[in-house]
């Protein structure tokens, strides 16, 4: 396992600062009253392209040599990372090749194109996505960047928690949603390096509880179905982020679809900010287990705000 230090994560933060937003930290007296604790929302829904993934994508590209940057980067993604890598690459004048499943929403394809990503569509299976990406790597000499299972991506994602701890150093717990594992692994690293007294907890839908089961079994588990409104959490853990999660994440709390919807509604109605369902999973976990969080100081990473407005009726 790689050695991670305060200095390394701080260097990552300095490296990407010119290309990202330092997102606001919000709180709500009513939400605190309902939850029975003090929650500080690190709002990555206000990040460039609307999600935390801009951080990791930017760091991954900046770590490449000039020659590698000229040949471009490639990833496979149906959502936020496709947009993040496209925008980060555009900011750095690097070609970005994005493999997207044919089933990806048109709104997300349009966003990738707006950010300058060159889309190659493929059938909607992981095998097809990986083979298509590899073909581009072979043809273009581009560097593959995984959305969540890449150390430089993970470190980039950890800078959100680093910023949170710089402003709120006395947090008892930092909680994030868990999908592919990049955000929670990066968060857990930042917490372990910069706060001896803070715990990291993950939140996950019952419908895609592979990370919860992976921590129990000690090996990476998969999901047989992905029937959740938290569409950003349907991916599985990887061999780069899972060891970090095993070492530094205290537990993962699972929530129902109804609990996610209730938390999403609370954020939208009371905080007046647009967040995607995946972000609400973390608040749902706090509301589900009030005794665990009672009177605690909680940092919560709002992962993103990219909502498909055409599907609002399905959310509630």
Topology:
Layout: H1 6-16, E1 25-26, H2 29-35, E2 38-43, H3 53-62, H4 66-71, E3 73-76, H5 80-91, E4 96-101, H6 106-114, E5 118-122, H7 126-140, E6 143-144, H8 151-167, E7 173-177, H9 182-194, E8 199-205, H10 210-217, H11 242-248, E9 251-255, H12 257-271, H13 277-288, H14 290-293, E10 297-302, H15 312-315
Parallel strand pairs: 2-10, 3-4, 3-6, 4-5, 7-8, 7-10, 8-9
Antiparallel strand pairs: 1-2
Helix pairs in contact: 1-8, 3-5, 3-8, 5-6, 8-9, 9-11, 12-13
Cofactor: pyridoxal 5'-phosphate
InterPro entries: TrpB-like_PALP, TrpB-like_PALP_sf
Organism: Zunongwangia atlantica 22II14-10F7
Task: Note down, in words, how this protein is organized.
Keywords: Lyase, Pyridoxal phosphate. This is Serine racemase. It comes from Zunongwangia atlantica 22II14-10F7. This protein folds into two domains: 6-51 and 150-315, Rossmann fold (3-Layer(aba) Sandwich), CATH 3.40.50.1100; 54-144, Rossmann fold (3-Layer(aba) Sandwich), CATH 3.40.50.1100. It has 15 helices and ten strands. The strands form two sheets. Strands 1-2-10-7-8-9 form a six-stranded mixed beta sheet, with helices on both faces. Strands 5-4-3-6 form a four-stranded parallel beta sheet, sandwiched between helices. With 316 residues, the chain is of the alpha/beta class. The relative contact order is 0.16.
State the main characteristics.
pyridoxal phosphate binding; lyase; Rossmann fold; 10 strands; 4-stranded parallel beta sheet; 2 domains; alpha/beta; 316 residues
